[in-house]
Amino acid sequence: MMVFKGLSAFPITPSDASGRVDTDALRKLLARLVAAKVDSIGLLGSTGSYPYLTRTERRRAIEVAMETARGETPILVGVGALRTDEAVQLAQDAKAAGAAGGLLAPVSYTPLTDDEVFEHFATVARASGLPLWIYDNFSTTHFKFTPALVGRLAQIPGVVAVKSTAPEPELAAADLADMRKVVPAGFSVGYAADWKSVAMLLAGADAWYSVAAGLFPRSCLAIVRAAQAGRADEAWRLDGEMAPLWALCKEFSSLRVMYAAAGLLDICRAEPPRPILPLPEAAQRKIADTLKGLR
């Protein structure tokens, strides 16, 4: 099995107040990512607001993505849901549409145990036949994957990769080494948290799952290519250019900043799904000023 590598760009999913996907706006966002030649697109990720969309609207988004990618760019699709049977259906939809894989987060209301998450993954993998990514995003699911659980899940046929949250840069090498110890050869280990990802890439992580790449694919791709080529100084320099954006994401949250930036850059006009509110005017001005300084 080929190890999944490189930059995965996670765009927002524009929709109206009723939760209907704005297909024209989504197509415009995705076309920019395909043109930039990102290594994959993470459709319906956390920034893509997957928990707020119905199955019908998720299918609509997948159809637009597959049409736009035209087989040139692999599409990874968020298939997380509260119920296992719903996650199975979403994974089956993604598989039928031709998605390269499913991003499965353990969405929950009642806190889940390790055994419950294991059975959830095993069921979705078995019933859908879709290659699955372990989607570790504690800030949204409040479930933390331990290396031991990742190791168990990696033994399930069809579970092929992990998208974890990057630790602090000084812990990058140790965290990656711990992960490599518990997964088999050919299992892709990648990380999110844009402002921490350069350290993970330089430590040898396979992939960067990036929120910012959903709007700034070329800038993020330049960072990845520099890291892949071993040009550490260049990777850190390019990361430094993005530091003002990283600061905004830490201050206001990546999702809110990306929704605001999409409008300020005149790429598309969209508001986050309620109850999430658009950022106030003062924050919008701060983002606008920062965007002027980015390449």
Description of the molecule:
By secondary structure, this protein is an alpha/beta fold. It has one domain (6-229): Aldolase class I (TIM Barrel), CATH 3.20.20.70. It contains 13 helices and eight strands. The chain has helices at 23-36, 55-69, 84-97, 114-128, 138-141, 147-153, 172-182, 197-203, 217-228, 232-241, 243-252, 254-264, 281-293; strands spanning 6-9, 40-43, 75-78, 101-104, 132-135, 159-165, 188-192, 207-210. The protein has an eight-stranded parallel β-barrel, surrounded by seven helices. Helix 6 (147-153) packs parallel to helix 7 and helix 11 runs antiparallel to helix 13. The protein is globular and about 45 Å long.
Descriptive labels:
295 residues, alpha/beta, TIM Barrel, eight-stranded parallel β-barrel, 13 helices, 12% strand
The succession of helices and strands, N to C, reads EHEHEHEHEHHEHEHEHHHHH
What is the CATH architecture assignment?
Answer: Alpha-Beta Barrel
Question: Helix/strand-derived class?
Answer: alpha/beta
Cα radius of gyration in angstroms: 18 Å
Q: How many domains would you count in the coordinates? A: 1
Walk across the major sheet and give the strand order.
Answer: 1-2-3-4-5-6-7-8
* First-last Cα distance: 37 Å
Work out the oligomeric state of the chains in this entry.
Answer: single chain
| Beta-strand proportion | 5-15%
CATH topology: TIM Barrel
**What's the CATH C level?**
Alpha Beta
CATH superfamily: Aldolase class I
The chain-level mean pLDDT equals 96
- Morphology: globular
Mind describing the biggest β-sheet?
A: 8 strands, parallel, barrel
Task: Report the total helices.
Answer: 13
Contiguous runs where pLDDT drops below 50 for at least 5 residues: none
As a percent range, the share of helical residues equals: 40-55%
Total strands: 8
